[in-house]
Design a protein that fits this description.
This protein is of the alpha+beta class. 37% of the residues lie in helices and 21% in strands. The protein folds into 6 domains: 2-145, Rossmann fold (3-Layer(aba) Sandwich), CATH 3.40.50; 162-206 and 471-572, Topoisomerase I, domain 2 (Orthogonal Bundle), CATH 1.10.460; 212-266 and 400-465, Topoisomerase I, domain 3 (Distorted Sandwich); 273-396, Topoisomerase I, domain 4, CATH 1.10.290.10; 582-655, no CATH class; 665-697, no CATH class.
Length: 698
């Protein structure tokens, strides 16, 4: 008998098949003597859409809302139906006696597999492969320690609740807003509070009124000190600041106190996904989605790092014995850093990292024992790997030790202070590869003695203005989402991208700016959906369901009631909305005004009438075809009569099929091969084309 192994992607399935010794490759699966490895293509099954319950829902009508099916149904995704049918055929084989779920070891991975098995009406045993890296060793060990499928039933229930809640809330609220205000307006239990946070920051910036203030810096003996009073270094009274400067110049400063404190900073913990995305955004300007995509390649393709979608920064105690192997794996790229650590037998000095209670479904992201070959990685992959590697190496080095020296001076009744930081042991900071901007290093305090007086050489007054808070960067948004429990490490990048794609926020110089559409949307949407507290509460309940501490039925009943309430509020609302991107041009098909939208391919014009599908590019696409008169590139257009080219300068119009198609390189090679054997023609392309045309006429 054989086991049917269900992976999430073809690339992962190929690796599993190779390790399991499966060599018979077929279109939709790979077979061996004990295993048949097949794959999904992401999700193969999805929740039914409203029109599958009733065809009237194909047309969006406010009166039909809310749409709340008594029981949510599943359907096969049309585009990947062929792969589902292939799995269905394998599932019916008489020599298959069990299914091993080998999809991503997380909530969404569980959903991918379980929905497929649900649709197959699978009744035979289910086992679960639960691994945190894709190395050969991890795969072999994982198959030796397969877990019973029932152990992950609660995780599956949690995933179903998440999917149904997003369907019920997101679909109904989005349809309600869109149909009431006649513009595509998207809302959801995670994206809306995230947008709300961006808007709140924008409001703080717009309401901000700058204030003028002054700081005073004085040269006292061999060093520079700052005026302060009760910890405040700013003066909002110019006259007072001028008075202090004139009062202290040339006077004696008494060194009242020198405080010396030895401090230490513990090694940073390894990354979870959100922390890595934050750091990559700060260091390299990477979006959260880009970081996740690069990380996924390092995990799946190169097998150099452990499972990416984790929310834990700790390791399990049984991983202690693997540390030396991981160091040896990365040694080729980090010889200088790794050599002394191996000499110490790969001993981890940051022992707090090993904490079973703080490891959730997966441990922190760290390097695997796979041998590193940096030349295989592109620039982005090297950057992300380097962040992970250096954070990991820090665990093997001692804490950062330093001494702070704080001097307090008294000059004519005014207080001045100076600070200095002296490094005792650089410790883990040797490998982090970044400067610590929090260390204010000065010089001169070592030479000073308490109780002595020093002359104030010069007092300088600097004029400054208070500044508004910065708009959120991607790292800031991720921090806020994590703080309020919005989404999961696996979904936050997608939520951010959805906000950008729906044109409610836009990226400018690495910061998020709300658009006019986003500003209006947040005014229209329900107050409950704006609050991160409500969504965070839902996420906590989903987490409770995954751990068997909450009832999924109770959760979904609450979501249904919530959906009815949200839709009712939108229907009763008397708020108004005006599409921010309406133009003065009218649709040639229905006469409604056209709206301008930004896409990856440039600006397009779309009809504002939701029942009309008219759209066209705002700026016509330039083709490679040249005008026969002025030889400039012609614009490419699509009209009712078909495709055509037009020269804006000469107004010459040509139908797309009017000119003979140019011969491409492939056709040229075919012509050369066909006619070079003939004795009566030369081998120039011109001769060959003449012969080809002659034969066409014959």
């Amino acid at each position: 008998m054989k086991s049917l192994v269900l992976a999430e992607k073809p690339s992962v399935a190929r690796e599993l098949a190779r390790v399991l010794g499966c060599t018979q490759t077929h279109k939709s699966y790979i077979e061996g003597s004990h295993y048949i490895v097949t794959w999904a293509l992401g999700h193969l099954i999805e929740l039914k859409m409203p029109e599958h319950y009733d065809t009237k829902y194909k047309t969006w009508n406010l009166e039909d809302l809310p749409i709340i099916p008594q029981k949510m149904g599943l359907k096969v995704i049309k585009q990947t139906n062929h792969q589902f049918r292939a799995i269905e055929g394998l599932a019916k084989r008489k020599d298959v006696n069990e299914c091993i779920i080998a999809t991503d070891a997380g909530r969404e991975g569980e959903l991918v597999a379980r929905w497929i098995l649900d649709k197959l009406h699978w009744k035979r045993p289910i086992k679960r492969l639960w691994i945190s890296s894709q190395t050969d060793k991890a795969i072999k060990d994982g198959f030796k320690q397969l877990k019973p499928g029932k152990q992950f039933d609660n995780l599956y229930h949690s995933a179903v609740c998440r999917a149904e809640a997003d369907w019920l809330i997101g679909l109904n609220v989005t349809r309600a807003l869109t149909t009431k205000y006649k513009d595509p307006l998207s809302a959801g239990r995670v994206q809306t509070p995230t947008l709300s946070m961006v808007l709140e920051r924008e409001q703080q910036i717009q309401k901000f009124v700058p204030k003028e203030y002054w700081t005073i810096r004085a040269e006292i003996g061999p060093l520079t000190a700052d005026w302060e009073h009760n910890g405040e270094k700013r003066l909002f009274d110019q006259t007072a600041a001028e008075g202090i400067v004139s009062k202290i110049n040339g006077k004696k400063a008494l060194l009242e106190r020198i405080d010396r404190k030895k401090k230490s900073e513990s090694q940073p913990l390894p990354y979870d996904l959100t922390e890595l995305q934050r750091d990559a955004n700060k260091r390299f300007g990477f979006s959260a989605k880009k970081t996740l995509n690069v990380l996924q390649r390092l995990y799946e393709q190169y097998k150099l790092v452990t499972y990416p979608r984790t929310d834990s920064r700790y390791l399990t105690t049984d991983m202690m014995s693997t540390m030396k192997d991981r160091l040896q794996g990365m040694a080729s790229g980090y010889k200088e850093e790794v050599r002394p650590l191996l000499a110490n037998n790969g001993k981890v000095l940051a022992r707090r990292v090993f904490n079973n209670e703080k490891v959730t479904d997966h441990h922190a992201i760290i390097p695997t024992e796979q041998r590193l070959n940096l030349s295989d990685l592109d620039s982005d992959e090297k950057k992300i790997y380097d962040l992970i590697a250096r954070q990991f190496l820090a665990l093997f080095l001692p804490a950062y030790e330093y001494e702070t020296i704080h001097a307090s001076f008294k000059v004519e009744g005014e207080n001045f202070s100076a600070k200095e930081t002296n490094v005792i042991n650089l410790g883990f900071k040797k490998v982090l590869g970044k400067e610590d901007s929090s260390d204010e290093v000065s010089s001169g305090l070592q030479k000073l003695s308490q109780g002595r007086e020093y002359t104030v050489k010069e007092g300088i007054m600097n004029q400054k203005w208070t500044e508004p808070p910065h708009r959120y960067s991607e790292a800031d948004v991720l921090s806020q989402m994590e703080k309020y429990g919005l989404g999961t490490p696996a979904t936050r990048a997608e939520i951010i991208e959805k906000l950008v794609e729906s044109e409610v926020v836009e990226r400018k110089n690495g910061r998020f700016h709300p658009t006019k559409k986003g500003t209006q949307l947040i005014e229209l949407v329900n107050d409950e959906l704006k609050s991160p507290k409500l969504t965070a509460k839902w996420e906590q309940e989903l987490e409770g369901i995954s751990k068997g501490k909450a009832d999924p039925k109770v959760f979904l009943q609450k979501i249904r009631r919530q959906t009815e309430q949200l839709v009712s509020e939108i229907k009763k609302s008397d708020k108004s909305y005006r599409a921010h991107n309406l133009t003065g041009s009218k649709c040639p098909e229905c006469g409604s005004f056209l709206k301008e939208r930004n896409t990856k391919d440039g600006k397009i014009l779309v009809c504002s009438n939701l029942d009309c599908s008219y759209r066209r590019r705002k700026d016509p696409k330039l083709s490679n075809r040249r005008c026969p008169q002025c030889h400039k590139k012609m614009e490419f257009h699509e009209g009712k009569a078909g495709h055509y080219f037009q020269c804006r300068r000469c107004n010459i119009v040509e139908k797309a099929e009017e000119r003979k198609k140019a011969v491409n390189k492939r056709e040229e090679r075919k012509l050369v091969q066909k006619y070079t054997q003939k004795d009566d023609f030369g081998t120039s392309l011109g001769d060959l084309l003449k012969q080809a045309l002659k034969e066409d006429k014959d």
